[in-house]
Amino acid sequence: MRACCASAPLCLVTVIIARVLFIRIGIVSDSHAKADRLGRALALLIERGAEAIVHCGDLGSADCLRELGRAGVQAYAVGGNMDDGQPHLPQVAAGAGVEFSPVTIEVPLPGGKYLVATHGHHHWVLDDLICGGEFPYICHGHTHTPRDDRRGSSRIINPCALTRANPPSAAILDVATDTLTFLQLT
Fold first, then answer.
1. Do β-strands 24-28 and 52-55 pair in parallel, antiparallel, or remain unpaired?
2. pLDDT per residue over 80-126, tens digit each?
3. Quick one: which of 57, 55, 39, 37 has its CA closest to 47?
4. What residue ranges do the domains of the chain occupy?
5. Residue 8 has pLDDT above 80, yes or no
6. What is the CA radius of gyration of the chain?
7. Which fold has domain 21-184?
């Protein structure tokens, strides 16, 4: 583990996982306790070749963590504002085989790089990650609005949301080709 976002007013810790390097990453956010909708999104992402899943926060329930754990690929998740006050989530995540961190999490990529995810409700954390220029991919949720833009050497991605979005969507990132595809959910 290492400290991240040291300039933020909160003491933050980033979880670094150094197992497998992923090329195709499914990205979801804001499931708001809708485990069935999350399950459908995960099935679509895996059908499209996702080798790992990143949930950018507002899981909303332990059931969503369990759904991530059943996906059949490595899953990573961060907490969001709807997850504050749910102290059991780290234990549920561990039991489900999901790597979880309350604020930021890093996913290993080829070349010694990392994708970093945060929810975005702590705007200073997101701003610090973007301004730091350390990560080629910075993923977040919270706004329920798709985002794909670049700041310096970083690509900032918001997959939109699985709930309270029209249409709900997820995204798949291919880091080998630097291609991002938004997938609308039905």
1. parallel
2. 999 998 999 999 999 999 999 999 999 999 999 999 999 999 999 99
3. 39
4. 21-184
5. no
6. 14
7. Purple Acid Phosphatase; chain A, domain 2 (3.60.21)
